[in-house]
Structure formats: C-alpha cells, structure tokens
Amino acid sequence: MAPLSLSSEFGYAVAVVGASYLANIYGAIKVVTARKKYDIKYPTLYSTGTTKNDEMYNCAQRAHQNTLEGLPVVNLMMLSSATVYPRAAALFGFTWVVGRFLYIRGYTEGGPEGRRIGGIVSHLGDFPLLITTFCAAWHLLRA
C-alpha cells in the first residue's frame, strides 16, 4: 500500500476552505444587520411575526443557516476530491463559495425569489464535487 502524497496544488483547495469561511462571516454579518434593522431581539432565532420586516429578517437568517448546513460536507467533498483532482476540486469549491455569496445577498435583499441565481451557482459547484468525490474514492481504492 503506497502512502498518500499530496501535490502542492492541494493548497488551492485549502485556500478555498478559507474562502468558504468568509462566506460564513458574510452571512453572519447579514443576520446581525437584519436583526438590528428589523428590531429582532436576542435570543430569537426566527421571527414568528407576520410583517414584511419579520419575513426579511427570516430570509437573512435562513440564507446563513442554509450555508452553514452545506459548508462542512462541501469542504469535506472538496478536500477529498483534491487528493486526486486538486485543481478541479478547488474550482468547484470556489464556484460553490461564489454561489453562497450570491445566495446570501440575493436572499437577504430580495427575499425568497432573490436566492435562485446563487442557488444555481452553488449547485454548479457542489454537484460536480459529489461526482469527483466518488471518482477520487475509486481512484484511491484502485491504487
């Protein structure tokens, strides 16, 4: 059994992990800003009110939460894929990160309809990562 060796290009994927954390911070800032703007007091996670302000706060919270839900598995798929396909994995991971920024911005500023473009771009990153993860596993199992 040969030891796993990583190319220096694996660093691209590691850099994208850092970028994904920046998307997380961006989402958190949007939630804090919406909390202040719409006067939603702590520790309220989601507003139960029925006004447009309540809806827009919930959109900001949901955009951030949705990003947090996907972030660990996307980073794990990207790093796993990068053991065999470092540039492709980093590119797909970066696509997901760009999609997250667009998703968070669209959802927090345009409501549910505003999230579509960001959602599409995100999936242009995470779906290929799912495929490259299985391909990398196959490659590593056959080595």
TrEMBL record:
- Enumerate the UniProt keywords alphabetically: Membrane, Transmembrane, Transmembrane helix
Subcellular localization, as worded in the UniProt entry: Membrane
UniProt xrefs under Pfam families:
MAPEG
Q: Report the transmembrane regions from the record.
A: 12-32, 84-103, 123-141
Listed GO biological process terms: leukotriene metabolic process
The UniProt entry's GO CC annotations, sorted and at most eight, read: endoplasmic reticulum; membrane; nuclear envelope
* Name of the protein in question: Microsomal glutathione S-transferase 3
Q: How does it sit in the membrane?
A: Multi-pass membrane protein
Give the Gene Ontology MF terms in alphabetical order: glutathione peroxidase activity; glutathione transferase activity
